[in-house]
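From the shared-data thread, chain only:
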Amino acid sequence: MSWLSPWRWLLGAATAAALMVGLLQLDKSRQAIGYDRAVVEYTTMALKAGQAARAREQALQAKVTKAQDDAKARETKLAADAAGARAATRGLRDDLAAIRSTLPGLADDAVRRYADASSIVFAECADRYSELATKADAIASERRALIEAWPR
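Structure, as tokens:
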């Protein structure tokens, strides 16, 4: 066989073509490996970022929940304090009523009118101050809840 033989050329061309196809497949394989590595790296980073974001969100939600629970506890205490203030006011009102009932035998008509008027005014003032204190405490509690729940 001479080197000019067509079979030799065909065999050489087939070998060269097979070598080229093999090299192309090897290159594709290496590119696929690089792409797969990049996908894994990106997915890992995205997963870590998602987990960190969830952890931050859970921490913020825990702070909000704690602030809300604390606010509820403060509101309960404020309601109890307001009930105590109302009970004290009723006690004072009863004391004033008792004093008012003893005044007719002790003093003249002007003293009775003065005592009646002053006890009525005092009772109204006590009621209004109690309402004002309740509202102020509720506002302070709400303010504190908002401050504690605010992300830092």
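Residues 6-149 form one domain.
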